[in-house]
Amino acid sequence: MSLARSLVLTIVLSALAAGAGAFGAAKYVTARMHPAPPLHQLIHDKLDLTAEQKQRISGLEQTYAVRRKALEAEMRAANADLARAIQQSHAYSPDVQRAIDRFHYAMGELQKESILHVLAMRQVLTPTQAAVFDDTVSRALTEDPS
C-alpha cells in the first residue's frame, strides 16, 4: 500500500472514530441528564399528591419537556456540526472547537433547566413530602451509576 493511501485511510478512520466517539458521548450525556426514574416514580406514585399538586406538577412537566427537547435538538445539531468540522479538517480546528463549545453550552443549559425543574416541583410539595423528595434527589445525584 502506498504512503498516500495509508495516510488517507488513517485520516478517514480517525474522522470516523472521532465522530462515533462524539456521538456516543452525546448519547451517554443525554441519557444521564434525564430525570432519574426514581424521582419521577416518587412524585407520581409515592407522595400521595393532591389533585391540585398533580395539576401544578403536570404543568411544570409540560413546560420542562418543551425546553428539554429544544436543548436536546441543539445538542444534536452541535454534534452534526462537529462531525462536519472533523470531516472537513481532520484536525482540532476552530470549527471543531466551536462545535464542542456549542454542545457544551446546550448541555449546561439543559442541566440548569433540569435543576430549576426539580426545584420548581419541590415548591409544590408539603414539608413532609419535600423531605422525602429531598432525600430522593440527594441519592439520585450522589449514587454511583456503575
UniProtKB/TrEMBL annotation:
Superkingdom of this protein's organism: Bacteria
InterPro entries, sorted: Metal_resist
Pfam families attached to this UniProt entry: Metal_resist
Signal sequence coordinates: 1-17
Keyword Signal annotated: yes
Keyword annotations from UniProtKB, A to Z: Signal
Protein name: Heavy metal resistance protein
